[in-house]
Amino acid sequence: MNAYTQLYINGQWLAPLAGGTFETFDPSSEALITRVAAATAADVDLAVQAARHAFDEGPWPHMSGAQRAVVLRRIAQGIRDRQQALAELEVRDNGKPLPEALWDIADTAGCFDFYADLAEDLDSHLEQPIALADERFSSVARKEPVGVAAAIIPWNFPMLMAAWKVAPALAAGCCMVLKPSELTPLTAIELARIADAAGLPAGVLNMLPGLGHEAGAALAEHPGIDKVAFTGSVPTGSRIMQAAARDIKNISLELGGKSPFIIFADSDIEAAVEWIMFGIFWNQGQVCSATSRVLVQRELYVPLLERLKQEVEKVKIGNGFEQGVLLGPLVSQGQYDKVLAAIARGQEDGARLVYGGARPDGFDCGFYVQPTIFADVPQDSWIWKEEIFGPVVCINAFDEETEAVRSANDSRFGLAAAVMSHDLERAERVARKLRAGIVWINCSQPTFTEAPWGGYKHSGIGRELGEWGLGNYLETKQITRYDSDQAWGWYLK
Ligand code: NAD
User: Fold this and answer.
1) How far, in Å, CA of 384 to CA of 167, rounded?
2) DSSP state for residue 327 in the 8-state scheme
3) Which end of the chain is more exposed for a tag (fewer CB within 10 A), N or C?
4) Coil, strand or helix: which one is 458?
5) Which residues does ligand 1 sit against, CB inside 6 Å?
6) Which residue blocks in 152-297 are alpha helix, DSSP H?
7) CA 176 to CA 15: how far, in whole Å?
8) Among residues 341, 316, 314, 319, which one has the least CA distance to residue 329?
């Protein structure tokens, strides 16, 4: 049996009921890696039943946080033990450079350890006494797992995005069904193997690779699901919200972005170039929080563009396994076509192409796109307003702080933003005016498991990571007791 043609349901590896598979490709060569099990609605139903049974009848939700933490730490260790192999699998399936994949896998393990700590911590404040104005009553607020969670994730950080949902859900005591993206399903399958080996009880984590409109839609609509945690595009997020509305499911959505980066003229030009590049070329720009709209104060605009171009020319493009590569291929033909179409649209709309804009020379196959810089971008153009999700940065000049803040906030998105200045008072002031869930000062993109992650406006609902991530998977129950010896005396006088 092919290692990837089975689904993980109720602690067992099963062929999909309809027997279907889909293909996953290496984006650097466009070659088939393997065929993968394609779950359909019938498999989703089985997986949800298994998770339901594990939650309603099984031990997991009733174990102490400390007991669950033991399993989470074993999962973290299992990931760490296989860091190199998992990172290599991620490079093959997603295309990212190996050092980035190694970093992702280390973060994935760290995420399980972090939520193991929070699970332990939960034991000591599971119930919080509530002071009531009426002394005849006493009350506690108690935290309980939300139930059966569906986690639907994208392809840009395949294993890490799984961890951001699986680790807090398991820490909270939820049981769940995980559906990875059909573009990058392989490391999620390995995660299920690692969780199984770590002794997670059957049915607590079920893992179903499958297509979005089939397995994903069936999962989001299933009445046995209490919570849907989704990361992906705005249109899919909206569909999931509509499906969830029917059963009033608890949802959290981590969606797209078009994040601004304001650079004041007093900034160090070298630092600005470094963080602009990290903000848009890391992971080939396929990053929801990528700072893809850069606003540079006029005095620095021309020298910064010149210096940025010099550095971008040096970026080594290639297969993620090659030493020194900083830009790998995009994840798929679809993403490649989308990014090149966006670049063409930018040129049609009158943006000035400063560098890139095409397939790099010397690549006969693979979904490679040059790192691309646009300047003087019309602020009503598609490329200034919409998410490209590729290595394309749009740069404009501004004069005044208020103008920069207004331009930065003039977006339907609000995931992240960044500001750079030597004047920390100004940077802090601007940070507080930006309408975004994450604001970086004098950097762009560093992400920490301890800190909240999520967006304003069309960028989503709710926060992942940190204690907020755990809160996503907890309900709050009030337990109130009548302590008085006096009869209540309303009906029985
Ligand atoms: P996508 O919406 O196409 O797919 C995401 C997931 O949803 C996949 O697993 C897919 O199979 C599934 N899906 C597709 N259609 C579905 C449906 N009808 N019902 C249920 N599930 C369905 O997004 P993508 O192309 O995989 O990812 C790119 C997007 O994700 C970008 O917009 C990016 O900004 C966003 N993203 C956001 C964050 C964040 O933290 N905010 C992180 C990573 C990616």
Assistant:
1) 36
2) B
3) C
4) coil
5) 152-156, 179, 181-182, 212-213, 216-217, 220, 231-233, 236, 239-240, 254-257, 288, 387, 389, 415, 455, 460
6) 158-172, 186-197, 217-221, 234-246, 269-281
7) 19
8) 319
- 260-286: average pLDDT: 98
Burial status of residue 376 (CB atoms within 10 A of its CB: 0-12, 13-18, 19 or more): middle
Residue whose structure tokens are 């009869």: 487
The rounded percent of the chain whose pLDDT value lies above 90 is 99
Give the end-to-end CA distance of the chain in Å, rounded to a whole number: 74
Q: How many residues does the chain have?
A: 493
pLDDT in tens, 281-299: 999 999 999 999 999 999 9
Q: How confident is the model at residue 3 (pLDDT cuts 50, 70, 90)?
A: confident
Torsion of CA 287, 289, 292, 294, to 10 degrees: -150
Contact 254, 453 (CB under 8 A): yes
User: In the numeric block, which tokens belong to residue 225?
Assistant: 């699901």
pLDDT tens across 429-455, in order? 999 999 999 999 999 999 999 999 999
C-alpha torsion sign, points 196, 50, 236, 167:
negative
CA of 236 to the centre of ligand 1 (A): 6
CA distances from 480 to 23, 128, 415, 475, 489 (A): 54, 12, 39, 16, 19
DSSP code for 464: B
Nearest atom of ligand 1 to the alpha carbon of 154: 26
One-letter identity of residue 212: G
Backbone angles phi, psi at 360, to 5 degrees: -70, 150
Sign of CA dihedral 187, 189, 193, 199: positive
Question: pTM of the entire structure?
Answer: 0.97
